[in-house]
Specification:
Blueprint lengths: L2 E5 L3 E5 L13 E5 L1 H11 L3 E5 L1 E2 L3 H12 L8 E2 L6 E5 L8 E5 L15 H5 L4 E5 L1 H5 L1 H16 L3 E5 L9 H11 L5 E3 L2 H8 L18 H11 L3 E11 L2 E9 L4 E3 L3 E3 L8 H15 L3 H15 L11 H8 L10
Parallel strand pairs: 1-4, 1-9, 2-7, 5-6, 9-10, 10-11, 11-12
Antiparallel strand pairs: 2-3, 7-8, 12-13, 13-14, 13-15
Helix pairs in contact: 1-9, 6-7, 9-10, 10-11
Keywords: Kinase, Transferase
GO molecular function, one term: kinase activity
Family: Belongs to the carbohydrate kinase PfkB family.
Length: 340
């Protein structure tokens, strides 16, 4: 299996039990998670040698996050220790027509204030086959954006495949700031992952698709994929296509383009959704594994979509499924019968 590196922020998610609202709960569950950390757990579960790069305080609250990663086989040796705080976010799980809500409390977290001197990116990338980051990391702070650039440069020096999940977060930055930071970073990227909103708000591309109206015909994405491929020279452009009928009922499929052929995955009807947080990250993790191990882009995409469909049934940020479980669903076994 491959050596895979991810860079980003792992936070502590504070959530009421079940579908309770913030204002009615008297206690919160602590759930570690964050974009690139979620991807690291996924690919570790598929058997890869996985490293998560970040910075966390040296106190016990920081150790909660470190221990969560170690529990699932992620190597944490490249996590710098220091800084004052772990980023937090509060997540209220929606139901039916009531949407989920997220409130961030992550300003001045350790990774947001980390310096280049905290990391030896050449040592980190040595021997790696894949490096993954998301648009959340450069959005956290200007310092984190600089770390992302330095990591990408090191990855290219070592011949490492680089993937990005564009992951626009309007509570972290504006579209104008995102475009100014993200577009220059695209020259390092081989595999670009993102939905229709991400492509527009991070890179300035808009597909011809009425997603809010539930119209996710893949043909609406063809021209935007071709445009992104032509401008940035990606090896693959990939998008998830989510139909949101309610907070607990979604349609889910994806599309991939390699510069020559488009492939559209099968569609999953996910109802009820248990927890959609980390759904996109589980897709990225599945895609990385698929592109590293499958013989065609279609097989890789089917693995990724099946993996992320399963994540929607699991509480928490991490996708706690095995390769065999994903292969079973991708192969058509979706009856949910008890395994004895």
């Amino acid at each position: 299996m491959a050596k895979i590196v991810t860079l980003g922020e792992i936070m502590l998610r504070l959530s009421p039990e079940g579908s309770d609202r913030f204002i009615q709960t008297d206690h919160f569950r602590i759930i570690p998670g964050g974009g690139e950390a979620n991807v690291a757990v996924s690919v570790a579960n598929y058997g890869h040698e996985t490293y998560f790069v970040s910075k966390l305080p040296s106190h016990e609250i920081g150790q909660i996050a470190v221990n969560a990663l170690r529990r699932y086989g992620v190597d944490t040796r490249f996590i710098a220790r220091g800084g004052d705080r772990v980023g937090l976010y509060y997540a209220e799980t929606g139901a039916s027509m009531r949407p989920s809500k997220v409130i961030y409390d992550r300003a001045h977290s350790a990774i947001a204030e980390a310096d280049a001197s905290d990391f030896d990116f050449d040592a980190i990338m040595d021997g790696a086959q894949w490096f993954h980051w998301s648009g959340i990391t450069p959005a956290v702070s200007d310092k984190a954006a600089e770390l992302t650039r330095l990591a990408c440069e090191a990855a290219k020096r070592h011949g490492v495949t680089v993937s990005v999940d564009l992951n626009f977060r309007k509570k972290l930055w504006t579209s104008e700031k995102a475009i100014s930071v993200m577009r220059p970073l695209m020259k390092y990227v081989d595999v670009c992952i993102g939905n229709e909103e991400d492509a527009q708000l991070c890179l300035g591309f808009k597909p011809d698709a009425d997603v809010e109206g539930g119209k996710t015909d893949a043909s609406g994405y063809y021209n935007i994929f071709k445009g992104m491929m032509k401008e940035f020279g990606f090896k693959y452009v990939v998008s998830t296509l989510r139909e949101s009928f309610s907070a607990t009922h979604n349609g889910w499929k994806a599309l991939i383009y390699n510069g020559k052929d488009f492939y559209e995955s099968k569609r999953y009807d996910i109802d009820p959704i248990i927890d959609r947080v980390g759904g996109g990250d589980s897709f990225s993790g599945g895609l990385i594994h698929g592109l590293l191990t499958k013989s065609t882009q279609g097989e890789a995409l089917e693995f990724a979509v099946a993996a992320s469909a399963l994540k929607h049934t699991i509480p928490g940020d991490f996708n706690l499924v095995s390769e065999a479980e994903v292969e079973s669903l991708a192969g058509g076994n979706a009856n949910g019968r008890v395994q004895r």
